[in-house]
Amino acid sequence: MVAMSHTPAAVRPTVTRNDVARLAGVSTAVVSYVVNNGPKKVSPATEEKVRNAIAALGYRPNAAARALKLGSSEMLGMILPVTTNPFWVVLAHAVEEAAAERGYALLIANSEASLAMERRHLENFASRRLDGVFLISVLFEPDLRDLEAAEIPAVLLNHITNSPGFDSVGVDLSGGAQIAVEHLIEHGHRKIGLVVGTNTGGQLDAREVGWRKALEKAGLPTGPVIRGPFSREGGYQAGKWLLSEADRPTAVFVSSDLMASGMLLALHESGLRIPEDLAIVSFDGSPEAEYSWPPLTTLGQPVEDMARAAVEALVGSGPKENRIFSPTLIRRASCGC
């Protein structure tokens, strides 16, 4: 029997900034400027030498050490209600780009529209000492005690009311709904229904408020109201319900593009023509609306402007405020335009 000896694998030495500077023939300060994109500018030729040295040596900056030195993790967190809704994905991407322009990375979490999951993510972000958190909450007034205790600022997104002590960014949901209904009235519709998503807190959605205001202003009766999950399945079931109605409305305002896309499938399956038999206007302005059939007329949200405002509110030093943006009617075929 032969005894086998085990030789430990050689431990790869840690590559330092000094090693990179030595190989590139520059100072460590210049390496720092390249790695951190400033604060001083470096000539393209020198930057290329430094980046080649970084690649050759496999250098990785020590994020933990940098965070300790700066007193900042340079990391922001974002909690979405779902990551399967195209609009939330577009908004998250816009926030990520706006944050990157300010030198921050973005960590995204999905609450799955669950209050318990939202709480866990907030606790996790607080323990990681992030520089700030963007929250699209399942509640109209979320509990932010964990962030407050950790002195981590937060910005509430998709939020239309003032929250003392916090910045918030939202879109005029009620005003957008009124624009949608008024547009359908301009097309000659007098019986206009509503398909609206349900929320965890049970509060009246501002889009329903706007729908009612527009009908009241025009002296028209309220059409049927169908409530369901903010999902394609929720919209599909809403479409099935509409098809079962003997006195069906001639037009409907749908509170999200996602629900509208699901409803379109149910209507197509029945052979209903859109917009001839039923006109539709939805809300969000997501890619889902543009590539539906027929393409959906929708109230588009100014995502890039909202994202920049949210990042500025989180990392800036201005007073706390509630920023409300106006949506824009995007005319397509589903309403008859």
The proportion of residues forming helix, as a percent range, comes to: 40-55%
Radius of gyration: 26 Å
Classified by CATH, the class of the largest domain is Alpha Beta
Mean pLDDT: 87
Query: What order do the SSEs take from the amino end to the carboxyl end, as H and E?
Result: HHHHEHEHEHEEHEHEHEHEHEHEE
Biggest pleated-sheet summary: 6 strands, parallel
According to DSSP, the number of beta strands is 12
Write down the domain tally. Answer: 3
Strand order of the largest sheet: 2-1-3-4-5-11
CATH topology (fold) name of the largest domain? Rossmann fold
Task: Give the percentage of residues in beta strands.
Answer: 15-25%
The global form is elongated
CATH superfamily of the largest domain: Response regulator
Domain HTH lacI-type: 15-70
Pfam families: LacI, Peripla_BP_3
Keywords: DNA-binding, Transcription, Transcription regulation
Organism: Arthrobacter terricola
Short structural summary:
One of its GO terms (molecular function) is DNA-binding transcription factor activity. The protein is an alpha/beta fold.
Note down, in words, how this protein is organized:
The protein is α/β, with parallel strands linked by helices and 337 residues long. It has 3 domains: 17-61, Orthogonal Bundle (434 Repressor (Amino-terminal Domain)); 71-171 and 303-325, Response regulator (Rossmann fold, 3-Layer(aba) Sandwich); 173-301 and 329-335, Rossmann fold (3-Layer(aba) Sandwich). The chain is 42% helix and 17% strand. The chain has helices at 17-24, 28-35, 44-57, 63-70, 86-101, 115-127, 145-149, 173-186, 206-217, 232-244, 257-270, 287-290, 303-315; strands at residues 75-80, 105-110, 132-135, 154-157, 167-171, 192-197, 225-228, 251-254, 279-284, 297-300, 322-325, 328-330. It has a 6-stranded parallel beta sheet, with helices on both faces. Strands 7-6-8-9-10-12 form a 6-stranded mixed beta sheet, with helices on both faces. α5 links the parallel β1 (75-80) and β2. The termini are far apart. Mean pLDDT is 87; it is low at 1-10. It holds the Pfam family LacI. One of its GO terms (molecular function) is DNA-binding transcription factor activity. This is LacI family transcriptional regulator.
